[in-house]
Specification:
CBS-domain, 5 helices, globular, alpha/beta, 137 residues, three-stranded mixed beta sheet
Length: 137
């Protein structure tokens, strides 16, 4: 699953929840993988006020009769505000051991599979890897 970098953050988080996935490939306007948005990002945003304040950009609106300022929140910021910009990737012809090594070296539980144009064509999770290893025994 992927989401455009320009999508609203709140919509991407809804997609994570509805589709019951732990991460989304973030793509640019040309469909190239540029980052990852994960379930950990949701936890970070919901547990720290600093992240929450980045979700909604405050806008000062002046009321006409009293000239007193009040703040409103606009639509949530774009996915690009929260994306991890260096996704770990493998190619379709890479070995399973290569994918495992990338997961271990980077302390991650998924790698994205990309084609020669760096477009995401799949995701390989630790669950997928373990399932394959169990099937070989």
């Amino acid at each position: 699953m992927s989401v455009l970098h320009s999508e609203r953050t709140i919509d991407a988080f809804k997609m994570l929840k509805v589709c019951n996935v732990s991460g989304l490939a973030v793509v640019d306007d040309n469909g190239k993988l540029i980052g990852v948005l994960s379930g950990r990002d949701i936890k970070r945003i919901s547990s720290t006020g600093a992240w929450i304040s980045r979700l909604f950009k405050p806008v000062r609106v002046w009321s006409v009769p009293s000239s007193s300022a009040r703040f409103l929140h606009t639509f949530p910021l774009q996915v690009s505000e929260f994306v991890h910009n260096k996704p770990i990737v493998v190619r379709p012809d890479d070995s399973l051991s290569h994918a495992i090594t990338k997961c271990v070296e980077n302390s991650i539980h998924r790698v994205f599979v990309v084609n020669e144009d760096h477009e995401p064509i799949g995701v390989l999770s630790l669950t997928d890897i373990l399932r394959e290893l169990l099937n070989k025994t």
